[in-house]
Amino acid sequence: MPAHRMPTAVLSARGSWRAKTRTEEPQVPSGLPDKPAMSEAAATEWDRITTILIGLGIITPIDGDALQIYCETFVTWKEAQAKVRELGSVIKAPSGYPIQNPYLSIANAAGAFCQKMLEQFGMTPASRSRVHKAPSPADRHQPGIPNIGLPRLRIAEFEDDKAG
């Protein structure tokens, strides 16, 4: 099976020459998609993942459906994992014989799908290690504050705004 096509934004962030060869690809401006109606747990994951993707600069308004599918599947995975922890990987069937917990199959399938979705957005450990964003003065790491790629405000800049 052929490898999936890497998003041009991810290739560009990596500094790949292939990003420059994709001249006929539609250019979608970056930005946050509208948040769709979803469960509360999925909405929490939406907020978490979109914050990260905004920091990487690879999210666009048309990514909403893919993100919604990921978020809902992520919640399914978490719920199935909780049931596996509660009941164990092997349970007793009505016949008395041990069988694999059905929630384990659900968790495995949902986890595999989430992994594929994360790869699509360049967010697996292997993908993340190859994505580099050119640091600007606002992006530079400040001691004691985790650097996730979001712009940082300097206290002096904020005080200048208040004074002016």
Short description:
The protein has seven helices and two strands, in the order H-H-H-H-E-E-H-H-H.
What does this structure look like?
The chain is 52% helix and 4% strand. The protein has 7 helices and 2 strands; from the N terminus they run ααααββααα. Strands 1-2 form a two-stranded antiparallel ribbon. A hairpin with a 5-residue loop joins β1 (90-92) and β2. The protein has a domain at 30-132. It is elongated. α3 crosses α4 and α4 (64-87) runs antiparallel to α5.
Average residue-wise pLDDT? 78
Helix content: 40-55%
Number of strands: 2
Structural class: mainly alpha
Order of helices and strands: HHHHEEHHH
Model regions low in confidence, pLDDT < 50 over at least 5 residues = 132-142, 149-159
Main sheet record: 2 strands, antiparallel
Strand order of the largest sheet: 1-2
- In terms of DSSP E residues, the strand content is under 5%
N- to C-terminal separation? 60 Å
Number of helices: 7
Tell the overall outline: elongated
